[in-house]
Amino acid sequence: MEGAVKKWRFALIITIVLIAMAAFSARLIQWQIFQTDYYNNIALTSTEYNVSTDAIRGEIYDVNGVPLAVNKTGYRVLINKIFMPDEELNSAVVKLVALLESCGGKWIDELPIIVDENGEYAFDEKKTDEINTLKSKDNLNMNPYSTAAECMAKLVERYGCEDYTKKQQRDIISVRYNMTRVGYTRSRPYVFAEKISERAMNVISENMQSVRGVETESMAIRVYENGEVAPHIVGVTGLISAEEYTTMKSKGYGYTDEIGKSGIESAFEKELRGSSGTRTYEINSDDKVTSYESIVSKPGNSVYLTIDSKLQKTAQKALKEAVKEANDYAKSVDDKDMGADCKGAAIVVLNVSDFSVLCAASYPTYDLSKYYSDYEKLASDPTVPLFDRAFMGALAPGSTFKPLVASAALQEKAITTKTHIDCEGVYTKNGLKLWCMGFHGPIDMYQGIRDSCNVFFAETARLVGIDNIDKYARRCGLGVKTGVEVIESRGTLAGPEYSREMGSEWYDSFVSPAGIGQSDNQFTPLQLATYAATIANNGVRLRAHVVDKVVSYNGNDVIYETEPEIMDNMGVSVQNLKEVQKAMNMAADNYTALQDFPMQIAGKTGTAENAGSDHANFICYAPYDKPQIAIGIMVEHGAKSTVAINAAKKVMREYFGIKDEKKQE
């Protein structure tokens, strides 16, 4: 009985399958035989091509709405294959080149072959990679030693431009070779020229009306207004690279698209880019073309930074003056190791309430609006203005590290506020010989920070141990990334872990140099400012950030605002931190350079030994009783901490609206 049921089920399944196959076959026969003319007619009478349209890129502003990276209207010239007959392309290119060059405009010219002063074809030796690509198997398939003339002969034949002059041949070939390279199809018009003037656009529009397939259209041009304000943070856009295109094409990027290359332009590429649209072209059997916007492009969102342009400019000027002050001092004492080699500096100011970056200045710097025009000069400048010293420039902190060691030692009970250590001008334990800047006698933690006693902190570091020092340092943001949205250095925290990374041994005697901010310790101005802000914030470290909010392009909708985010806690009691804060206030009161500053602050200087003049560093927060801002500044080879204090004072005066009485006189 069971076997009969199985046979019945099997027969039923076979019958259903056969019926389905018969139905599909009948439908296929209907499509291919009886309705062939109908579907052929549809194919012949209506063909669609979808062309991508650009989205307007979102803009970048400072915290007060001062424009930093915005868009202005420019123009470009396209060659649209839908309308451009192949046999007319060469003559159209020649005419376009002549018109644009008559207006002083430039067209996209990537061919690595030029016409030299003798009227002969020659390779552009600056374009070695492009020359190799041109000769490669995938292109001309020529020998590596083939001459420019031999390559051109093959290209002239390929593109059928035998009847033109050498210059015209080269122009035609440059355009058509690049068309092949970037993909010139009916779905992808070719960008012949972009960012041209309105005059050039009008000349081309008027003179190319009779030429089918040449189009001019408006485009958004990225403009960096106030280009001297935080250029390293704002960043730039540029043509997408081959490597970027490979990874980004799945996200809708084209071979000729622009993309954020650095700074906020890169970090917030997704928000700034927007979404492209689609223009659909329909071509009927009579070659009549109609078009419509099938998908509307959507502009990108705009980004507001936490940077205050006015404070940033003040900081930038203060750094320049700090470098000059160091150089002048070296001349006055006729000692090259007292600041003659000072070339760069950086300062970061954080809002203590949320760790937003109010300014992050790096000197020397550059104008973002001239980035590409000045690039070769900037890239070869020995003072490396393209390097972001504020977020990436890690230097030895020197004595600015001592409040951290004091905090760790108090919390671990290695010392108390009543512990006294005798300073006789030199520290000699564990075979070391560390000199102090004075003979302080028996001193406590307050005096140790106030007078920056190396002996006190060399011994305190030995008592508390490197593991504890590093633990509290990381919690303050030293030797770890602060979380800021753009690229930053994590710095270096001296200790066994770093020594292992470097393949070297760590010895217990190394802890004392580390405790006075030397050894392998290297931190950025951003990290120093974060460290100072953490102490001011009673041990709570928030995420440092340069983005205030992201809004819709029209500014009507806030997409999101950056909220304070706790990254860590020092783990030091408020009482112990109050003692360290008190000592930092004593230190600030003791600095001659701060005697004329009409506000109580907490601070600590540091002059870090290295090859050449010492680095001059300073951390502080203000006001002392109700902290609003924290500062970290490093002057490379500044020699004297006074140069760092003076720069910080200028920034604090600007922030708090304090007039400089000396300048008033």
Residue share in helix: 25-40%
Shape: elongated
Residue share in β-strands: 15-25%
Q: State the major sheet.
A: 7 strands, mixed
Distance between termini?
117 Å
Radius of gyration from the alpha-carbon trace, in angstroms = 34 Å
Output the number of helix runs. 24
How many strand units?
25
Mean pLDDT across all amino acids? 91
Structural class designation? alpha+beta
Low-confidence spans: pLDDT under 50, at least 5 residues? 38-45
Structural account:
- By secondary structure, the protein is α+β, with helices and mostly antiparallel strands.
- 39% of the residues lie in helices and 20% in strands.
- Strands 2, 3, 6, 7, 12, 20 and 21 form a seven-stranded mixed sheet that branches. A five-stranded antiparallel sheet has the order 14-13-25-24-23. The protein has a three-stranded antiparallel sheet with strand order 1-10-11.
- The termini are far apart.
Write a concise synopsis of the structure shown.
With 665 residues, the protein is α+β, with helices and mostly antiparallel strands. 39% of the residues lie in helices and 20% in strands. The N and C termini lie far apart (117 Å).
Topology diagram in text:
Blueprint: H1 2-34, H2 36-45, E1 47-53, E2 60-61, E3 67-79, H3 89-102, E4 113-115, E5 121-123, H4 128-135, H5 148-159, H6 166-182, E6 190-196, H7 198-207, E7 214-223, H8 231-234, E8 237-239, H9 242-248, E9 258-260, H10 263-267, H11 269-273, E10 277-283, E11 289-295, E12 302-305, H12 309-333, E13 345-351, E14 357-363, H13 375-380, H14 389-392, H15 402-411, E15 421-423, E16 426-427, E17 434-435, E18 441-443, H16 445-450, H17 454-464, H18 466-475, H19 496-501, H20 511-515, H21 525-536, E19 540-542, E20 547-551, E21 558-561, E22 566-569, H22 574-590, E23 602-608, E24 615-622, E25 629-635, H23 641-656, H24 661-664
Parallel strand pairs: 2-12
Antiparallel strand pairs: 1-10, 2-3, 3-6, 3-7, 4-5, 8-9, 10-11, 12-20, 13-14, 13-25, 15-18, 16-17, 19-22, 20-21, 23-24, 24-25
Helix pairs in contact: 3-6, 5-6, 12-23, 15-17, 15-18, 15-22
